[in-house]
Design goal:
With 410 residues, the chain is of the alpha/beta class. Helix content is 32%, strand content 22%. Strands 2-3-4-5-6-8-9-10 form an 8-stranded parallel beta barrel, surrounded by 4 helices. Strands 1, 11, 12, 13, 14, 15 and 16 form a 7-stranded mixed sheet that branches. A two-stranded antiparallel ribbon has the order 17-18. The protein binds pyridoxal-5'-phosphate (PLP).
Length: 410
């Protein structure tokens, strides 16, 4: 139903010749085009549209995105801080994670405008602390609950938060049995992935069926429709979305939020690599690149999917079948570090560059710290003593410095 990504522009191909390899290249103009479409949908519908940083967390671009978007959504402390420190001061930071530690709550309260809880048990655990903070804070903070409408519309189980037994969100059944919802003023659902408006409309219908009684309560002041909306694709029914948002705002007297990631960054970046070796084995022509599916493009293996692969010189796109077929592979020890099989009209050469299309969303963040999650500390338990030694630990500064390199200071 949705079209393939457009081919990289001549400017991107030319940039791909100049960068160090491997490299991601972000196309600022493409990013601004997406953000402009989202801004127009927000203006027409009254929705508040924020960037889902889990898809794109490059803070140097936040001042520009902040001109178009209402703010950012965060999956935890590091993303919340990244947004707070890099989006314009008036931007909202809205946070939702599957679970918070007590330390997370203490750090997130001053950083967040919405703090959404995944379960009633988490809300109950932190409610007093949250409400106390709310009383003392001069900037408004609202607390919400992630709901699970138990209505699947996607095709990939790995990406389905409504699969039976899902840990993501509170079901209607649990909510009906809740002792008290005092202090909760928002509902949040996220169930879509790369989907069109029809799936959202059907999901909202299910949400209204199961949670309409709560949406109608005056205490509920916002509804967050999550991400997964391919709003910036040409085929997306943006008029349908605008009408739906307008209706929800009117029917329930609430603010509507959308938190797309892909729609902000789709078709705005490439990953460039170089062929290090060509190596035939059992009839397969392996082309080993200086990048890796498992380390740099894990969605290729997890989802799985086959990204478009172009020869940078000549701009030829790899096809499913053709005269010269190669398995493009990574440079790690994992036997399955393979990107896919691609055919070209003439043989590939060692040293030539390949670029993978549409790599700005999710691929870049998965190369660094996905969701801004803290990496585990590495301890050593010495053979001769019980005193643990920290060998390596990771801080917010590591997260940021992986994202912001000051070329002048090296
Ligand atoms: C809670 C939540 N919100 C927003 C998003 C962004 O989704 P997308 O990048 O598909 O728009 C995700 C993605 O997994 C998510 O889990």
């Amino acid at each position: 139903m949705f079209s393939d990504p457009p081919d990289p522009s001549d400017r991107l191909f030319s940039a791909a010749q100049q960068v160090d390899s491997p490299a991601f290249i972000i196309d600022e103009g493409a990013l601004m085009k997406n953000a402009g479409i989202l801004q127009s949908v927000a203006q027409q519908s009254g929705a508040k549209i924020v960037l889902a940083q889990k898809a794109f967390a490059q803070p140097q671009l936040y001042p520009i995105l902040g001109r178009f978007l209402h703010g950012a959504c965060a999956s935890g402390v590091w993303e919340a801080r990244l947004a707070r420190e890099n989006f314009p001061a008036e931007a909202e930071v809205i946070t939702c994670a599957p679970a918070y530690s007590s330390a997370d709550i203490t750090e997130l309260l001053p950083l967040s405008d919405h703090l959404d809880f995944n379960s009633l048990t988490q809300w109950k655990r932190y409610r007093e602390q949250c409400l106390q903070f709310q009383k003392e804070r001069n900037r408004e903070i609202r607390f919400g609950l992630r709901i699970n409408p138990e209505f699947s519309t996607g095709e990939t189980p790995l990406y389905d938060p409504c699969a039976p037994g899902s840990r993501l969100g509170t079901t209607a059944d649990h909510l009906k049995r809740a002792e008290s919802l005092e202090g909760i003023s928002g509902l949040h659902f996220h169930t879509l992935c790369e989907q069109g408006f029809d799936d959202l409309a059907r999901t909202v219908q299910a949400v209204e069926e199961h949670f309409g009684w709560l949406l109608a309560q005056p205490q509920i002041t916002y509804l967050n429709l999550g991400g997964g909306h391919w709003i910036t694709k040409d085929e997306y029914d943006r008029e349908g979305l605008i009408s739906l948002v307008q209706r929800l705002r009117l029917d329930y007297a609430l603010e509507v939020y959308l938190e797309p990631g892909e729609a902000v960054t789709i078709h705005s970046g490439i990953l460039v690599g170089t062929i290090l070796d060509l190596h035939e084995s059992g009839g397969v022509n392996n082309a080993i690149l200086d990048l890796s599916a498992t380390a740099h493009m894990p969605d290729v293996l997890e989802m799985p999917y086959r990204p478009e692969a172009f020869r940078v010189a000549g701009q030829e796109k790899g096809e499913e079948k053709g005269a010269h077929t190669y398995r493009l592979t990574g440079n790690t020890c994992l036997a399955g570090d393979q990107i896919g099989d691609y055919s070209y009209s003439t043989p590939l050469q060692i040293g030539e560059r390949i670029c993978f299309n549409d790599m700005a969303h999710y691929t870049m963040v998965k190369t660094t710290f996905f969701n801004g999650v803290r990496h585990p500390t590495i301890y050593l338990l010495p053979a001769a003593s019980d005193s643990l030694q920290v060998l390596r630990e990771f801080s917010f500064q590591d997260y940021v410095s992986l994202k912001a390199v000051d070329k002048e200071s090296g």
